[in-house]
Structure to design on (682 residues):
């Protein structure tokens, strides 16, 4: 018998393969299914997230400088630890390298990794390099720490909780669209270089994202512990659905509250894309999406750089987007569909 | 400027890329350069090892059943934690998968991983799966634990310490040679299958290695804390050189004390290979190689399944192999060369 992986999809496949996993160690507080695993060490908990990045799938070296790639590979794993309300402290980085790459290439990549480590106060503590028959492969594991009573998982959201997201959405996706377009236009033309002026923000969001260390700090300063949190890697739609599924709740997201940068909106118009779709499904924003009890409304809105985008409902109410013209649409992992009235 | 990676070699490349790493976190007790990183949690220390396995480089699916591959991918990481005198407790496993693979293939692979987890008492706590353009990619990270005063690194070996290795050496390498030969002989012949009777041991050593959890237990029961320890993944020569370099000592290994199984010796003869070379450089044995103070000689030799193969000397004396005919040869990462008299 042969079942094609495409029949299950990525999330379905993971569910299928992990459904038989039993937790046996008393130190394992949380296994698969969150931004990071949680390992108990008494007062403190160790957080572990891991990521595998493959050339041609997760990045394109035609328009990705290796230094940026190293920076991003590290930062996106830091982001997973912040999404648990923890602090990243160590990473390991393993590389598979084909003959196409030189020592200088790897120096560039490592310079990016070490820059990220320096900016975020993280130590690179291990990894290995090996030959690869097929391009560049990156495996990153991040270890973080958190006080045992501060860790935030995806499964604590409650009916009436407020939903906040930091920064803005969709910029990294529009940066990627721009890079892909320019790659095609300039294919084979070594002389000409694309003009990216006025588009720096969306390019930086794609090529050199940052993790929201500042938001975790602000939350602590305001004595706010979110009830659930995730980083926006697949897009707000997918990621709020993870929270709702694991918390067994529904949600209402308001289209007119989605935070969108001017460059994102402008580029979406150029590409004739619906900017709300971009913001909901773009992915790779690495913003923090979290829920806060309604009683903490005033404290939460005092935090700079976060936006109230909706609220949690009961599971029966489903996960919906309220559009600008006040229609209810069902939120989906990719896009949304109109709910029949 | 373009420097080919081959000019540095694997170890040279890692040294080159990691020489500028600075440790900044007080919880980082040990970074790159051992079997695992050490993270301080007070009384206990967390150990982290990671591994990236690429199809065509680290394994060949023509003769490696996916269930065995899953088992091995997990076990070789457990071995790194035992080599620190610790206990593996959690692993993460990320996969890159091309369209060539079906859901059933992945079920097989996961069955092997979960079997290893069950045998060794380890929890699978994370990871992800993603598409790959190019075959099967496996990234494994293992988290272990050890009492802070029990962790054994590679840098504690002292002059006159005894050198022990568990089990026997070279079997996994001869198993690989046999599989490679049969692959070529039987290429394209679907009807015929090779006859492996009488060669089960070397095949199992290659396809389904075990980590020496028992040795770590025996050492604790005999109140022996090795001064340095490593698992034999690259071959005894390479691995004792890691200990000697990091401990700033020399060593003397006695050829006639190398533990070699009958099947290994027999297969080496068939292939017209020097069996001592196979034992010294074969790799993938996943035995434990460790040093013990001379004063613990009697306690150490009482342990079942370990073999005294030599002793530590001062750094000036170099790292040498004493052959059966009592000549001194310089030990090298691959092979050895005669020392001029």
């Amino acid at each position: 018998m042969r079942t094609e992986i495409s029949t299950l999809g990525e999330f379905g496949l993971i569910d299928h393969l992990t459904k038989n996993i039993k937790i046996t160690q008393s130190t394992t507080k949380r296994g698969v299914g969150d931004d990071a695993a949680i390992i108990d060490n008494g007062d403190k908990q160790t957080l572990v997230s891991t990521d595998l990045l493959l050339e041609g799938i997760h990045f394109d070296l035609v328009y990705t400088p290796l230094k940026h790639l190293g920076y991003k590979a590290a930062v996106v794993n830091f982001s997973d630890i912040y999404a648990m309300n923890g602090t990243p402290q160590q990473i390991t980085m393993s590389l598979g390298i084909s003959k196409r790459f030189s020592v200088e290439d790897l120096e560039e990549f490592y310079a990016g990794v070490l820059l990220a480590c320096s900016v975020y106060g993280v130590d690179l503590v291990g990894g290995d390099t090996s030959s690869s028959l097929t391009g560049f492969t990156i495996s990153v594991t991040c270890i973080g720490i958190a006080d045992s009573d501060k860790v935030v998982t995806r499964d604590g959201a409650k009916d009436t909780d407020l939903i906040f997201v930091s920064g803005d959405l969709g910029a990294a996706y529009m940066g990627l669209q721009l890079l892909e377009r320019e790659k095609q236009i300039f294919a084979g033309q070594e002389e000409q270089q694309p003009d990216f002026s006025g588009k720096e923000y969306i390019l930086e969001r794609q090529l050199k994202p940052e993790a929201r260390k500042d938001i975790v700090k602000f939350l602590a300063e305001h004595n706010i512990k979110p009830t659930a949190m995730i980083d926006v890697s697949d897009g707000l739609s997918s990621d709020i659905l993870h929270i709702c599924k694991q918390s067994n709740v529904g949600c209402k997201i308001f289209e007119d509250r989605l935070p969108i940068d001017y460059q994102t909106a402008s580029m979406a118009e150029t590409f004739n894309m619906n900017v709300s779709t971009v913001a909901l499904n773009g992915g790779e924003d690495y913003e923090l999406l979290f829920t806060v009890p309604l009683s903490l409304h005033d404290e939460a809105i005092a935090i700079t750089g976060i936006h109230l985008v909706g609220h949690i409902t009961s599971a029966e109410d489903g996960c919906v987007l309220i559009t600008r013209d006040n229609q209810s649409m069902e939120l989906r992992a990719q896009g949304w569909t109109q709910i029949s009235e």
